[in-house]
From TrEMBL:
InterPro entries found in the cross-reference section: NusB-like_sf, NusB_fam, NusB_RsmB_TIM44
Pfam name, any one: NusB
Stated family: Belongs to the NusB family.
Boundaries of every NusB/RsmB/TIM44 domain copy: 2-124
Protein's name according to its UniProt entry: Transcription antitermination protein NusB
Gene3D superfamilies (alphabetical): NusB-like
UniProt keyword terms in alphabetical order: RNA-binding, Transcription, Transcription antitermination, Transcription regulation
Length: 136
């Protein structure tokens, strides 16, 4: 649930702008927010928005197009998943990628989940190489 709210927040930020605090306050007003892990949401949302430039630079080499050509949903999913891969090492990379695929299936275009999966698989090989090698 927290990832869904983070996705919504990044989506809103990309399309309409606004401060992280304002967007976060709006998201917290949702009736569904009570079911969310607030600390995870806050860490992920604020972390992504404070690290946009680094995240974009990390993602770009694994794309077959520019970031501006990504749908806002794919963009948001790739940002939040990349942030998780880098900063939430206690979460298995496969779990992060699976969550991203589910978000893309639910909120993205018909084949967006395939694109997200392909990009994150390649990205994980770089960011989580030790974890991936240990699973072989």
């Amino acid at each position: 649930m927290a990832r869904e709210f983070v996705l919504q927040g990044i989506y809103q930020w990309r399309l309409a702008g606004g401060s992280a605090g304002t967007i976060e306050a709006q998201l917290r007003q949702s009736r569904e927010f009570i079911r969310t892990d607030e600390q995870f949401f806050t860490n992920l949302f604020k972390g992504v928005l404070s690290d946009i430039s680094t995240l974009e630079n990390t993602i770009q080499p694994f794309l077959d197009r520019t970031l501006s050509e990504l749908s806002p949903v794919e963009y948001a999913i790739l940002l939040l998943s990349t942030y998780e891969l880098v900063h939430f090492l206690e979460v298995p990379y496969r779990a992060i990628i699976n969550e991203a695929i589910e978000l893309a299936r639910t909120y993205g275009g018909s084949d967006g989940y395939k694109y997200v999966n392909g990009v994150l698989d390649k990205l994980a090989l770089k960011i989580r190489a030790v974890e991936i090698e240990s699973k072989k």
